[in-house]
Design a protein that fits this description.
The chain is α/β, with parallel strands linked by helices. It folds into two domains: about 1-140, Glycogen Phosphorylase B (Rossmann fold); about 160-334, Glycogen Phosphorylase B (Rossmann fold, 3-Layer(aba) Sandwich), CATH 3.40.50. The protein is about 35% helix and about 20% strand. α7 (about 185-200) links the parallel β7 and β8 (about 205). α2 (about 20-25) runs parallel beside α6.
Length: about 325
């Protein structure tokens, strides 16, 4: 059997689909299982033994890109499993396989076709069900056993030895910048936290991407710090390297972002800084009791909105008012 698992969302969502991927692999060990993701979002599947091939598509494909995808998936599969209830993921599933299982939106007449084209479906719950559990309900529809553990990316080679003696030194890992502005903590908070960790005789390693926005943000933090124990590795590591690095660290602190989900899965002590995000739906997933979620302050928290101005580049007062002392005290208790 050939199976296409559709996970066309952001990087963190791809990581959170790995328990369902593992469930499919254990149920159908001899099958070919491919995963469809957005372009440049498949890094979390590096070295994943449950995946045969990662197929990518642009977030907003043009006609030529649709043609390429059509050739890759059209009637190539026996089963398509969609972890999304949007129009395009369901169309991809319809093109790919005669048998389709999917999450679907709440009942609306304009979405009725999504239920009609599936042999089984589960309704999306964006309030009270964690994303991992939501995905695993698709395993239930297939009558297969659930596997709950997130599978982290791996690689045969490591580049970490190029930067510092990470296997001998004690260090903390901080990931400063999330994708969206409304999930940001303050530079002041990060600087005070870095000072505390260095005073605890820890190296502090910064991870991140290589976008100009992220570089500028990290450089602003670096400009306020004068220590050779602060190491900036942003933009220099693959997700497999980041996972290995965090797995050897003393503690990780980060905002609501993919790397925080990755840190939780490594088993390392993890502090997640959340603002308006619903933690029931999106908290870092771990069964190892290694995660503490520190939510921003305010009677409205969590509001489940995109910041105080209701858009992705908004600010979140609950995070701006989160004092570093709260985070430091949390570290002391872990």
């Amino acid at each position: 059997m050939k199976i296409l698992l559709i996970a066309t969302r952001q990087i963190g969502d791809v990581l959170l689909v790995t328990p369902l991927l593992r469930s499919l692999r254990c149920a159908y060990p001899d099958s070919i299982i491919d995963v469809l993701v957005y372009e440049n979002k498949g890094g979390m599947l590096e070295g994943n033994p449950d995946c045969n091939q990662v197929i990518s598509v642009a977030e907003h494909p043009n006609f030529s890109q649709y043609k390429v995808l059509f050739k890759q998936i059209f009637r190539r599969y026996d089963l398509a499993v969609s972890t999304l209830g949007g129009d395009r993921p369901l169309i991809y599933a319809l093109l790919a396989a005669p048998k389709r299982v999917s999450l679907v939106p709440a009942k609306r007449w304009q979405d009725a076709w999504k239920r009609w084209i599936t042999v089984a479906h589960s309704e999306l719950d964006n309030e009270t069900t964690h994303t991992v559990i939501q995905n695993l309900r698709l395993a239930d529809l297939l009558g297969i056993k659930r596997y709950y553990e997130i599978v982290i990316p791996t690689a045969d080679d490591s580049v970490l030895n190029n930067y510092f003696d990470w296997q001998q030194e004690k260090f903390a890992v901080l990931h400063l910048l999330p994708m969206w502005h409304y999930k940001r903590w303050t530079i002041k908070g990060w600087c005070e936290l870095i000072d505390y960790l260095i005073d605890m005789n820890l190296y502090v390693v910064l991870t991140g991407g290589n976008s100009e926005v992220e570089k500028a943000y990290i450089n602003e933090v670096l400009s306020k710090q004068q220590s050779d124990k602060l190491i900036n590795l942003a933009g220099q590591l693959r997700f497999s390297d980041v996972a290995e690095l965090i797995g050897k660290s003393q503690i990780y602190v980060g905002p609501d972002t993919a790397v925080t989900h990755l840190a939780a899965a490594t088993g390392t002590k993890t502090i997640a800084l959340y603002g308006p995000t619903n933690p029931v739906k999106w908290a870092p997933w771990s069964h190892k009791n290694n995660v503490v979620l520190v939510q921003g302050v305010g009677d409205c928290v969590p509001c489940h909105q995109e910041g105080c101005e209701r858009h992705k580049q908004s600010f979140s007062r609950c995070l701006e008012q989160l004092d570093s002392s709260v985070v430091i005290e949390t570290i002391k208790l872990m």
